């Protein structure tokens, strides 16, 4: 019988500091055992429990794409009092990290095939959306989807994740990337200025044959979902990902439920329709 | 299955024989507190209790348990609890509770290897309940003082002897293995005894419909009212045979770590607190609602049954006398229309 609590061993291969505040780092992990690595078959939108041995475990969305062969990436925000996120940020290349997963459900990429895809992200909740964008942009997949429109916002230019990739996306003609910042404190800023919901209203992507994936802090979701509705996106065409405190990640420990739904096994991905049926317990 | 009987005078010899093959666990009394523990001889067994203070859950989901050990380089082989065990003298409600825990820890999606191994290696020899307490309400939940769900062998205390009945194949094998202590084909008055016992139950609620009634009550202002007295001590959950929430913590060893699965409780303040400081259940009422909804609405939605067996432990032990029966009665009494509002 497989022990569902036991993680797979990996080592940190690369650490990228993502933002000026230096509280967001991307960790590239390599599996210690190639077989275990090959068995780690994940989909865009899934997460894993990361273990810093002798400290603890926490759930983190998978930021790399299933098309990135042999690569597994996570972008982690350090919380001042967070035990595991601090310990992760104190790790160095070569350190050992446990990975338990992939866990949870994923974005409905099959249902999105042939459709226009709108991706709206805010802050560091952009990680699994980045995974999805990388997946769609992969040459083996790009033809399977129609237009790809991305709107991504952060507090200021220094807080944007994956800066090199954002630049590359803006130079391509098979993705329409809108980057916005709440406040452009930097004169060289050439992107949008303003909150995600407001910019979304300006950009006004068409809801026709389209599916929208939206991830961000609760306050962004609160104001963005109504804009999408107003634009004409239906409740099953809007898809989001939720976060709750977790321990086991496998539906046992009783920690992560919102009403009768366990975010770790029934989610983290939910349609807006499902979201509306959940009680106000977020 | 054929009935048999064992004279109580033989209990000591029987236990000695069983102990040669199995680890034997049973109820032990200490100053009126009845808990389950290893039994070395018959006089350690407390078989005249009404129900144990602490449930037998601990024998399958210990308060703390190592779920893996990492020595800094490699994982240490999991020491699965393979020893064969007999639990003697637990009540039918606790056996039924284990079948409810099975739905979580041994389901199609995931198996907890420690729990599953213990369940597979343990024979449950239950003792039917002839003296239910006024706080017991198993019949309201679909159970029975002579219930057989989850039971391998059912015993009934007839005074000078125990009636014995095999319920499962495992129970049958067990009775056969120790056949010399039982006189075969002793026609016991099972039906009369069971009827007499259930006749002593004082709670006439029927909880089958509670789940439906709760559907519309999440936002109701009743939760503030009914939880007002609760001090969030968690006693009710820790004693409950069907509560199973746990935490996973790291216990450092010299060079590595043991991952420990440890009982937790949704009534505790920081249970759902996020690292960002946000707490989806910041007040007692929200946590109390979680407990009740989990047992009587979410669990039935997921597994088809209420996760309460009516053992009455939470009623007896709550320091502020919060009585779950009263709450359930109020929910059932609320007009269905009001409930779905
Ligand atoms: C499905 C899912 C995907 C996720 N994906 C990502 C991701 O991609 N990237 C990412 O960075 N995060 C992600 N998270 C969030 C991440 O899991 C948490 O930030 C992480 O669990 C924090 O763990 P920790 O050990 O550092 O914090 P803990 O040590 O658990 O710290 C939290 C505890 O410290 C105390 N505490 C901490 N901060 C405060 C405060 N402000 N006020 C009061 N008490 C406080 C509390 O006791 C709290 O319980 C995700 C979460 C989920 C559920
Ligand atoms: S035992 Fe009583 S006071 Fe303690 S948590 Fe349970 S209901 Fe609240
Ligand atoms: S909720 Fe109370 S009565 Fe029901 S099984 Fe748990 S402890 Fe027993
Ligand atoms: S994290 Fe344990 S049940 Fe979801």
Automatic annotation (TrEMBL), chain A:
<dbReference type="InterPro" id="IPR001433">
    <property type="entry name" value="OxRdtase_FAD/NAD-bd"/>
</dbReference>
<dbReference type="Pfam" id="PF00175">
    <property type="entry name" value="NAD_binding_1"/>
</dbReference>
<dbReference type="InterPro" id="IPR039261">
    <property type="entry name" value="FNR_nucleotide-bd"/>
</dbReference>
<dbReference type="Pfam" id="PF00970">
    <property type="entry name" value="FAD_binding_6"/>
</dbReference>
<dbReference type="InterPro" id="IPR050353">
    <property type="entry name" value="PyrK_electron_transfer"/>
</dbReference>
<dbReference type="GO" id="GO:0006221">
    <property type="term" value="P:pyrimidine nucleotide biosynthetic process"/>
</dbReference>
<dbReference type="GO" id="GO:0050660">
    <property type="term" value="F:flavin adenine dinucleotide binding"/>
</dbReference>
<dbReference type="InterPro" id="IPR012165">
    <property type="entry name" value="Cyt_c3_hydrogenase_gsu"/>
</dbReference>
<dbReference type="InterPro" id="IPR017938">
    <property type="entry name" value="Riboflavin_synthase-like_b-brl"/>
</dbReference>
<protein>
    <recommendedName>
        <fullName>FAD-binding FR-type domain-containing protein</fullName>
    </recommendedName>
</protein>
<dbReference type="GO" id="GO:0051537">
    <property type="term" value="F:2 iron, 2 sulfur cluster binding"/>
</dbReference>
<dbReference type="InterPro" id="IPR017927">
    <property type="entry name" value="FAD-bd_FR_type"/>
</dbReference>
<feature type="domain" description="FAD-binding FR-type">
    <location>
        <begin position="2"/>
        <end position="109"/>
    </location>
</feature>
<dbReference type="InterPro" id="IPR008333">
    <property type="entry name" value="Cbr1-like_FAD-bd_dom"/>
</dbReference>
<dbReference type="GO" id="GO:0016491">
    <property type="term" value="F:oxidoreductase activity"/>
</dbReference>
<dbReference type="InterPro" id="IPR019480">
    <property type="entry name" value="Dihydroorotate_DH_Fe-S-bd"/>
</dbReference>
<dbReference type="Pfam" id="PF10418">
    <property type="entry name" value="DHODB_Fe-S_bind"/>
</dbReference>
From TrEMBL, chain B:
<protein>
    <recommendedName>
        <fullName>4Fe-4S ferredoxin-type domain-containing protein</fullName>
    </recommendedName>
</protein>
<dbReference type="InterPro" id="IPR009051">
    <property type="entry name" value="Helical_ferredxn"/>
</dbReference>
<dbReference type="InterPro" id="IPR017896">
    <property type="entry name" value="4Fe4S_Fe-S-bd"/>
</dbReference>
<dbReference type="InterPro" id="IPR017900">
    <property type="entry name" value="4Fe4S_Fe_S_CS"/>
</dbReference>
<feature type="domain" description="4Fe-4S ferredoxin-type">
    <location>
        <begin position="298"/>
        <end position="330"/>
    </location>
</feature>
<feature type="domain" description="4Fe-4S ferredoxin-type">
    <location>
        <begin position="221"/>
        <end position="251"/>
    </location>
</feature>
<dbReference type="GO" id="GO:0051536">
    <property type="term" value="F:iron-sulfur cluster binding"/>
</dbReference>
<dbReference type="Pfam" id="PF17179">
    <property type="entry name" value="Fer4_22"/>
</dbReference>
């Amino acid at each position: 019988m497989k022990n569902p609590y036991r993680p797979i061993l990996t080592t940190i291969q690369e650490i990228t500091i993502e933002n000026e505040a230096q509280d967001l780092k991307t960790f590239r992990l390599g599996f210690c055992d190639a077989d275990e690595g090959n068995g780690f078959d994940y989909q865009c939108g899934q997460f894993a429990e990361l273990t810093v041995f002798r400290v603890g475990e926490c759930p983190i969305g998978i930021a790399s794409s299933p098309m990135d062969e042999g690569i597994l990436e996570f972008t982690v925000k350090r919380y001042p009092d967070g035990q595991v996120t601090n310990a992760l940020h104190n790790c160095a290349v070569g350190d050992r990290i446990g990975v338990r997963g992939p866990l949870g459900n994923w974005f409905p990429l099959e249902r999105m095939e042939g459709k226009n895809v709108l991706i709206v992200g805010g802050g560091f909740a952009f990680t699994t959306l980045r995974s999805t964008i990388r997946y769609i942009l992969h040459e083996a997949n790009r033809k399977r989807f129609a237009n790809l429109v991305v709107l991504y916002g952060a507090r200021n230019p220094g807080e944007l994740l994956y800066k090199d990739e954002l630049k590359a996306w803006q130079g391509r003609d098979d993705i329409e990337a809108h980057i916005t910042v709440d406040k452009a404190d930097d004169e060289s800023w050439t992107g949008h200025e303003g909150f995600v919901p407001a910019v979304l209203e300006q950009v006004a992507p068409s809801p026709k044959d389209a599916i929208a994936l939206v991830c961000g802090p609760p306050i962004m979701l609160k104001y963005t979902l109504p804009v999408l509705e107003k634009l004409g996106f239906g409740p099953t065409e809007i898809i989001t990902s939720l976060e709750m405190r977790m321990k086991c990640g496998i539906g046992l420990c009783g920690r992560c439920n919102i009403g009768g739904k366990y975010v770790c096994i029934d989610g983290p991905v939910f349609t807006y329709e499902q979201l509306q049926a959940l009680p106000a317990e977020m | 299955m054929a009935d048999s009987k064992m004279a109580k005078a033989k209990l000591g010899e029987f236990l000695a024989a069983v102990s040669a093959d199995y680890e034997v666990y049973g109820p032990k009394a200490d100053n009126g507190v009845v808990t389950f523990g290893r039994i070395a001889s018959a006089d350690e067994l407390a078989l005249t209790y009404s129900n144990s203070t602490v449930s037998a859950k601990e024998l399958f989901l210990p308060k703390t348990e190592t779920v893996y050990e990492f020595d800094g380089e490699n994982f240490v082989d999991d020491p699965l609890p393979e020893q064969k065990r007999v639990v003697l003298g637990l009540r039918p409600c606790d056996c039924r509770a284990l079948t409810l825990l099975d739905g979580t820890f041994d389901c199609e999606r995931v198996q907890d290897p420690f729990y599953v191994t213990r369940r597979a290696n343990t024979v449950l020899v239950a003792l039917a309940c002839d003296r239910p307490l006024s706080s017991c309400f198993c019949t309201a939940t679909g159970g029975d003082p002579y219930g057989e769900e989850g039971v391998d062998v059912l015993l009934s205390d007839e005074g000078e002897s125990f009636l014995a009945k095999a319920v499962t194949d495992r129970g049958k094998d067990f009775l056969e293995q120790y056949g010399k202590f039982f006189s075969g084909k002793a026609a016991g008055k099972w039906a009369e005894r069971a009827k007499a016992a259930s006749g002593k139950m004082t709670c006439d609620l029927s909880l089958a419909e509670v789940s439906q009634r709760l559907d519309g009550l999440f936002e109701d202002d009743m939760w503030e009212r009914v939880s007002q007295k609760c001090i969030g001590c968690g006693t009710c959950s820790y004693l409950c045979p069907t509560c199973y929430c746990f935490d996973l913590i790291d216990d450092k060893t010299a060079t590595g770590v043991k991952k420990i699965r440890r009982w937790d409780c949704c009534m505790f303040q920081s249970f759902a607190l996020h690292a960002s400081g946000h707490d989806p259940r910041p007040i007692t009422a929200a946590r109390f609602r979680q407990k009740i909804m989990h047992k009587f609405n979410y669990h039935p939605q997921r597994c088809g049954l209420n996760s309460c067996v009516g053992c009455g432990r939470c009623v007896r032990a709550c320091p502020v006398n919060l009585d779950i029966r009263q709450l359930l009665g109020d929910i059932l009494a609320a007009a269905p229309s009001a409930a779905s509002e």
